[in-house]
Structures are given as structure tokens and as C-alpha cells.
Amino acid sequence: MVQVALAGDVTEAEELKELLKAAGIEATLEPEDEADALKVMVPEDSLEPAIDAIEALSEPDDETAVD
Q1: Rounded to the nearest 10 degrees, what angle do helices 10-22 and 47-58 cross at?
Q2: Domains and CATH numbers, the chain
Q3: Which among 60, 21, 66, 64 has a CA at the least distance from the CA of 40?
Q4: Which of 4, 7, 28, 44 is 20 to 30 A off residue 37, Cα-Cα?
């Protein structure tokens, strides 16, 4: 398992885990040295798809094209 993200708290970690689950990627949470922080871990072969899923699903929907 490799780290794909660092969540600041349990709520953020669970949201990222659910986001990855919706994308078909298994994720686990591990404690970080910081007080409430959690590492979001995915299988190594899922790292790139997990990064893509997090970026795609966490971007704002207000994409305005400027010509």
C-alpha cells in the first residue's frame, strides 16, 4: 500500500476513502504522526488512478471557458 493523500482529520479521510470507493479503488486509513491527520493508502498499482479520481472528483464544477 502507498500513500495517495494526507487528510487533516477523520471526516476528510472518510470522504476521500468514499470518493475512491466510488471510483472502484480500495483504500485504507492509517494514523499520521500529526494529532488528527490520517494517511489515505491505496494499492501501489492503483496509485495513478487514485490520484486522477481525487483530482477529478474534488475539483469545482464551475469550469468557465474564457475565449
Answers
A1: 110
A2: 2-58 (3.30.70.1530)
A3: 21
A4: 44
User: What is the chain's length?
Assistant: 67
Asked if 4 and 41 touch (Cβ cutoff 8 Å), the reply is yes
11 vs 32: CA distance, rounded Å? 15
Residue 28: CB atoms within 10 Å: 12
| Residue 64 pLDDT greater than 90, yes or no | no
For 11, what's the count of Cα atoms within 13 Å in the CB-facing half-sphere? 0
Q: What is the C-alpha to C-alpha distance for residues 20 and 7, in angstroms, rounded to an integer? A: 13
pTM for this one?
Answer: 0.81
